[in-house]
Amino acid sequence: MDSSANVPIEKNVVLVGAGNAHLRFVKMFGMTPLRGVAVTLVCQSPTIPYSAMVPGHVAGDYTYDEISIDLVRLCRAMNVRFVADFATSIDTIEGAVRFAGRAALRYDVLSLGVGSMPATPAGLDESTSWKMRPLDRLTSRLDELHRSLVAEPRAFHFVIVGGGASGCELALAIRKRFRDVPDFRISLVQNDPRLLPRFPEKAGRIFTSRLEAEGITLRLGTAVTGGDLHSLTLNGGEKLPFDVVLWATNAAPPPLIATTDLPCDGAGFLRVNDTLQSIVDPTVFGTGDCITLESHPTLLKNGVYAVREGGILYENVGRFLREKPLTRFVPQSRCLTLLNTADTHALFCYGPIVWKGRLTRLLKDAIDRRWIDKFTRFPAMGTDEEAPQMRCGGCGNKVSADVLSNVLRRIDIPTDPRVLLGAHDGEDASVYRMRPELYGTDPARLVEVQTVDYFKSFLDDPFLFGRIAALNSISDLYAMNARPFSALAIATLPYARGPVQEGMLFELMSGAAQTLRELGVVLAGGHTTEGPELALGFSVTGYAEEGDLFQKSLLKPGDVLILCKPIGSGALLAAWMRGECRAEWYTHLVRVMLRSNGPAAEVFRRHGVRACTDVTGFGLAGHLLEMVDGSKVVARIDPARVPIYPGFAEVVAQGIVSSLQGDNAKASCRIEVQGSPPAWMFDPQTSGGLIAGVRAEQADEIVRALHAAGYHEAAIIGEVFAVEPGRGPEIRLANQ
Question: What gap in Å lies between CA 118 and CA 330, rounded to an integer?
């Protein structure tokens, strides 16, 4: 959703599934947006392979990157919200898509493009019985199997059930891929007496000849009636042993369709009319393999039709929202099909015309690459001149440290004996002494710890933003060894129609409430406002024992510095804003940001650590300088040991950094290094990790404990020294 626009959001369109039609819809929306409309794409995987190129990848002709569409980059570049999750049901009464682990998505218009699944017998074991879809899982399993058999060769029987286009292409591709594995056998079982029964007979004869030439055993006219862990039961009761069976059978509808309570055909596919709408619910559209077109009930499940459906879908959704007449989808009477034969040739099929040749393979490669390029190559979001105006969210949205400190020095803040640590002490939270008669078994030492955090959204997913914002707010309490108790929320919602705002607020606070529940924190209330951008924060209260507080100012010479999470979120989030953050980088970043600092604080507490803070908006340099200044020491950092997020170096090399990077880098004058300090020193972190000073003899044990607690990148990054005569506190970097 375009949170930077002042146009109120009037309608929500949700696309479930990333099939060809929905990919076209996303691209068309990015090129010609529908005014006042927010679009969300839901797909379990953030990166999807293009089905037409999967056999080529399996055969070794393409890398996985060459055949893949990065949905994170695509959706961000096209101003479409992306939700990487599995939809479990559709509630057409409430107009909502439901999930197992997150808040429902409300829709005004829904489109289902969830494809199909191969039909399989019940009761087979998934470890040896593989389904052709999802394709990303199939390709990874084939990669793992190949590595395993190359490392430890053994006799292996791979059975493919289904002699349609997919089964035939994959059989030849797998044969080519596993040619270096001795005693690797492939059998193909087909119920029909010939291969490619929906194609001209010549096509079936060509593939029969190719499969037999590769030594692939064909069992035509053979039905599978059941099976177990390592054998199929064939018609007549014969047992066919296998090590793995791959199902490439005729399409069956995915379970999600059955949850809609909408009319389906006898096989369970969603019935839609010529406008691609459900025959009973005009707010629900359908495309691709999961539908049956009422006017063409025998139309093949072919991605070529879905490509054309995408243009009609985009046009009709816009017309439906504007209450205008819709356009009819009329499938072409013939479609071109190009099948990879894994021998530098391909099969050309157009109506009755069939031939096989090298030029056909070149044609297929050109067409496939052109399709992939449509969704992987697009202009960057903003030029170098525009980039500084694209202000970051999250902790990159902070006011710079020098501005904040200058203002605090100019304000006359009265003191109070009940305030143990306040605004001028520079700690992560404020600490108050409490009435001893009210709290705890040792009430004289109990203190109240309070902090507040608030920033604009750095993601387009309110649910995820709510979760991470809550974690980030509570982190300051963990950084002081306090136990969080309650939180008050402060939320700003973008201008939108009432039901749209309600849905957004529900997602936002559902995410925050989930995090707060997991941490044992009570959501006690809050305040909401309208504004141009989504924003969220929390005022959090917790408790601690006065003598056990972590403080920035307690570093000692001889301590070793341990960092719990990687550095680099600021630049990666800036790259995401520009549509330049790869899905694997983004997925890893979100996974780490969703990791609470609570268990890390507990590890430090158990080992008697006293010096600690969390690395957030002012970056590693800014927060470490707060520690060395307060402790009157010198910190020496080994850059080679600092954990950095994957992708950080790549996006910085493109000139992409957080909008707070420049202000943070003003601290470089207090960093001793040969040359310029590395960019990661000044990168602002959102939901960043704790950094603590620990006794050297405990360091390895603490790192092992952190790894066991889930902080897999936790590392010793440096050590602490006394200040030398004539010099002040500073940071030094070891020679790189």
Answer: 26
CB 159 within 8 A of CB 238: no
Residue-range domain boundaries for the chain: 11-44+85-115+253-332, 118-251, 380-390+551-736, 428-548
Q: Can you say whether the dihedral through the CA atoms of 80, 85, 87, 93 is positive or negative?
A: negative
Name, in order, each residue with C-beta under 8 angstroms of 481's C-beta and a sequence gap of 6 or more: 544, 548, 549, 550, 601, 604, 605, 612
pTM: 0.90
Smallest Cα–Cα separation from 429: which of 511, 551, 513, 523?
551
Separation of alpha carbons 208 and 188, rounded Å: 11
- Residues 665 and 678: their CA atoms lie apart, in Å, by 10
Whether residue 449 contacts residue 550, with contact meaning beta carbons closer than 8 Å, is answered with: no
Q: 124 phi and psi, to 5 degrees?
A: -85, 155
Helix axes 699-708, 598-606, angle to 10 degrees: 150
pLDDT beyond 90 at 4: no
Fold classification of 380-390+551-736 is: Phosphoribosyl-aminoimidazole Synthetase; Chain A, domain 2 (3.90.650)
Is residue 564 part of the annotated active site? The answer reads no
Digit-coded pLDDT (tens) for 339-350: 999 999 999 999
* pLDDT tens by residue, 551-580: 999 999 999 999 999 999 999 999 999 999
> If residue 26 lies in a helix (H) or strand (E), which one and from where to where?
helix 20-31
Task: Tell me the CATH number for domain 118-251.
Answer: 3.50.50.60
Q: Specify whether domain 11-44+85-115+253-332 bears CATH 3.50.50.60.
A: yes
Burial of 722 (0-12, 13-18, 19+ CB in 10 A): exposed
Helix, strand, coil share of the chain (percent; to 5): 35, 25, 40
Taking the C-alpha atoms of residue 182 and residue 227, their distance in angstroms, rounded to an integer, is 26
- What's the token pair of residue 110? 């829904």
Q: Do domains 11-44+85-115+253-332 and 118-251 have the same CATH topology?
A: yes
Q: Which CATH code is given to the segment(s) 428-548? A: 3.30.1330.10
Active-site residue, from 395, 564, 581, 612? 395
Tokens linked to 95? 């107009």
